[in-house]
Task: structure prediction
Amino acid sequence: MAKIHVTTTVNGEPSEFLCDPQQTLLDVLRDELRLTGSKEGCATGDCGACSIMLDGRLVCSCLVLGVESEGLEVETIEGMSSGDQLHPLQQKFLEEAALQCGICTPGFLVAAKALLEKNPNPTETEVRYWLAGNLCRCTGYDKIIRAVLDCAADLRGA
Amino acid sequence: MARIILTSGLSNQFTSGQTELEIDAVDVRGLILLLDESFPGIGDELKREMAVAIDGQIYQEPFLEKISTNSEVYFLPRIGGGKNILT
Amino acid sequence: MSSDNKDLKWVGKSPVRPDGNDKVTGRAKFGADLMLPGMLVGKVLRSPHAHAIIKSIDTSKAEALPGVKAVITSADVTDLSSEWVPAGEVQINFRDLARNVMANEKVLYNGHAVAAVAATNNAIANAALELISIDYEVLPHVIDVEDAMAEDAPILHEDMFTQGVTPKPDKPSNVFKHVDIAVGDVEAGFAQADLIVEKSFKTAPVHQGYIEPHAAVASFGEDGKAELWCSTQGQFVVRLYCAKLLGMDVSNLRVTPSEIGGGFGGKTTVYLEPVALLLSRKAGRPVRAVMTREEVFRASGPTSGAVTWVKIGVKNDGTIVAGEAILKYQAGAFAGSPIQPGCMCAFAPYDIENVKVKGYDVVVNRPKVAAYRAPGAPISEHAVESVLDDIAKQISIDPLELREKNAATEGTNAAYGPKFGPIGFVETLAAAKAHPHYSAPLGPNQGRGVACGFWFNIGGDSCAAVNVAEDGSIVVSTGSPDIGGSRASMAIMAAETLGIDVADVHPNVADTSSLGYTFLTGGSRVTFATGMAVIEAAKQVVETLRERAAKIWDISVDAVIWEDGYAKPAGTNAGDFEPLSLGEIASTAGKTGGPISGNAALNAQGAGPAFGTHICDVEVDPETGRVTVLRYTAVQDCGKAIHKGYVEGQIQGGAVQGIGWALNEEYIYDDKGRLDNAGFLDYRIPVASDLPMIDTVVVEVANPNHPYGVRGVGEVPIVPPMATVANAIESATGIRMTELPMSPPKVLAAIDGAK
Result:
């Protein structure tokens, strides 16, 4: 099967790649574009470790085909910090020990950023339900939720 | 004489049910040799399966640990944290 | 060995972890993130059958497929003789390990590896697997532990004769061994009881549930030397196992641990690592092998499912006079369940004169069991804590008071034999009782449960190197993969010992060629044992720094003290010298004797056992059987919390795994012994919307065997939750659930049944 040429924008930069029609966007990000920050935890859209933004919408990149990103804007964890400045969420996760092994952290950060951009003042319940699609096995979620709520408060107050 | 306590499983298999013994030994390695003399076969089982607690302190790798005259020595199943490769 | 713990600068604080930046930016490299030039994709063919003889394997068509560079089967694996070694806190037999990595005469579970290929891409590798044809003779299978123990059960291993039985049996069995623990005389004990309660329970196997699947990248050279990069809890253990399976010298293999995306005991053995190495050796190119989530469930070790029975006798005032238990644990396809620690832990929190526990290690046609956080203990302690709760209700004693009445303290003879040193169980009970959670009001359909837990914690072999750089900054190298933030703790302990800013200490995890043998990350041992090695190495550095200052000042080393990161004269008699900083001494190290470095290699003894007491409030929906956890508090004795935030994190994470074990997680098999729910959708672990915040209370009763009083923290928190939640459900509904998980269909059936 011939590879398909795809042109897209990744983290603000124009990007192009060749991929097999059946390759997922997650596979393409990791294997073709060498952006390994998005992780494969399940390949069935259940764990959220592959979370990215596709044209402003939070998706599991394992459920999107590489070819579907043609002409769209892809934002991954690699685009979250700017220059040498961490995004406030990234900083908060570090300060509040909201990660242990760190494998789920990119997915949580992308998802939490999407939440705060949509709803800058979420309740604890709203945060928990928004992040229910991101699995974590190390933390029990407590410090993650606290970090998101504290960051939201900071961003509102700042 | 140090007080030696075996698990009931060991005692049923090797010592006809006797779980408590009084033995004089300098270290765990010596103790196992003495036990094996009285109860043939117990030595291998102890080396393979057992950790040792001497006066309350558990040792997963006990063979060179010293035993004093009034020590209380328990043989207990290994939790698994030791190296069993070179028996 | 305890230093005075007053005025600690870093111990007990929560500085930002040194490896955190890479993890929040996606830069950190986990097992599947490494790429090597020319790297091939490795994929494994797995048995569709639960139990079958392999009559023949034909790999010729797969080998001929363009793009396929190597195909292997068990013929490529060194056949090893029987030899037991540790893997976390369970044990593994090398002969069994070889057969688990690649099935030899038989396949013993759905998912058992039978062949593997290396190809230039994923699609070709998958196509190659389909071209391998295997002739199986399907055999009857058995997956339930009591079915496997029955007289007419299908036998998994014709050479398995039950150990620990006299006289020695002459018929093979699925029972690998019996375990017997006893103190006192339970018959006499029960005779004194005013009340005896006995109950049977059933628990299902649960998976450790790490979000990162197993992954390994292997690169074999033509000179017989190889490099392996993998997600593992123990690079030295992996090195040994792989070297044996490939028939190579241990030192010809360098294993580098990647960042690890969760382990919890499940990454203390090998699955893909030897396969990737074998494929690489045959193909002459690097090979990356990664499990899919489905493979993780079908083929990597869960912990045991079990059938347990507990009988406890008490006097009317609550004194426990006797405790008896029978525990039957599944080992999976090969022997080696955590039945030993399970038996030892069952009654361990309590001071009971008469205890008798019998355990069975039973093989069944399921994946080989691997270590999972306090292996064996949650299962046995769930049964005991549930029965204690029933007893408390029947004699009208507060459940925490019942436990206080019988609590083990310093000097108590543990239920498995020896005396306890200083322990903090009573302190956790008191803290739980005093916590506002314990007296908060409850609404309709709500209930509160408490339960306790115990785990030994281990020490073991650790090496550490503390090296002083030319500018006075410090590199601390250890051999312990970091699964919970331990690098931060190593930095804290080194900084505290050296008296410098923790930001100037840079911890790293070394590969097998760069540091001495270090036992794997598990057993809650890293902060304790590897920490001890770090402290010892740091102390050596302090000694050297004093010597160098003495040389610079031309005075005796006894006249030099080290304080807050500076060498200072011991008193005015020693001389009027300006203090020398670590940086100043480091910059002239070449002139005063050479590089400054401390190295420790030790086998840490004296790990402190630890206890926890948990409180849980649930609400049970009588129409659906759904159990909602409303509030959860976990109290634990940690000896000394080195990094407060990560200690809390360990407790919260372990508690939530326990809650999942209690309420939703289980393996579901069809009638052919095939796993039906091999994915996160149907193997339901807790998600963020299932839970409230998890309140943690850290109690500190110092372990005198560690310089800062550390006790292992990571495992205890998973022990109490199953009973805590079960007891809360009982309190809410009046129904004692005896089968885990207590999922909605089961709870609803129980509620309807009780009407």
User: Anything to note?
Assistant: The mean pLDDT of chain A is 97.
